[in-house]
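hey
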């Protein structure tokens, strides 16, 4: 696809990363895109909602939605412009839902049966090839998880790498059980969007 000649060098670099992510399922490219824009997206959303926890959550949602639609991006304009539009639109939807007093995040999580989305990280009984594939997936997850905000990173590590139960995480971090479930649901959706591109390749 021809790249818009008006794009800046920064935007062209972003487009190269997008191409690697879409065409090669390059998880390093996904992680770099997130690293380049996570903070700026977060601060934009913080201004919109004036709540740090909501801004954190909405940042995760924005990247999850953007990465699931990455194949739709065209270089007619900068990737950052496209990403910020997705993030702001998602935030506006969130604000509208809050005003309408729709179902809470906890209820949404329970109804979606989040455990069915969990990653299969158990390695018992795998043959050498399966063990290698499993190891690759874990390494990819670890790289992307490192790009998450510390709060999400800690939750994901406890749940999927240390295999804590929701109740154990709640006690370990002194957080309400519903908060643990809701935040893990958001982080898991984001990670699942990333992993979808690799499940048929690795």
């Amino acid at each position: 696809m021809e790249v818009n000649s008006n794009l800046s060098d920064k935007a062209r670099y972003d487009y190269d990363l997008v191409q690697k992510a879409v065409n090669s399922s390059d998880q390093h490219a996904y992680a770099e895109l997130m690293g380049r824009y996570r903070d700026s997206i977060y601060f934009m959303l913080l201004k919109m909602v004036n709540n740090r926890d909501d801004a954190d959550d909405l940042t995760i949602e924005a990247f999850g939605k953007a990465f699931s639609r990455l194949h739709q991006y065209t270089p007619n304009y900068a990737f950052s412009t496209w990403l910020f539009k997705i993030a702001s639109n998602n935030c506006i939807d969130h604000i509208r839902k809050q005003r309408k007093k729709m179902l809470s995040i906890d209820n949404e999580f329970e109804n979606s049966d989040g455990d069915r989305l969990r990653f299969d990280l158990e390695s018992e009984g795998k043959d050498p090839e399966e063990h290698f594939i499993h190891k690759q997936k874990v390494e990819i997850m670890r790289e992307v998880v490192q790009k998450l905000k510390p709060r999400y990173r800690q939750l994901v590590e406890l749940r999927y790498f240390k295999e804590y139960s929701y109740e154990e995480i709640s006690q370990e971090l002194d957080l309400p059980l519903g908060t643990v479930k809701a935040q893990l649901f958001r982080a898991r959706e984001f990670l699942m969007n990333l992993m979808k591109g690799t499940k048929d390749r690795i």
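The CA atoms of residues 117 and 188 lie 8 Å apart. Confidence is low (pLDDT under 50) at residues 101-124.
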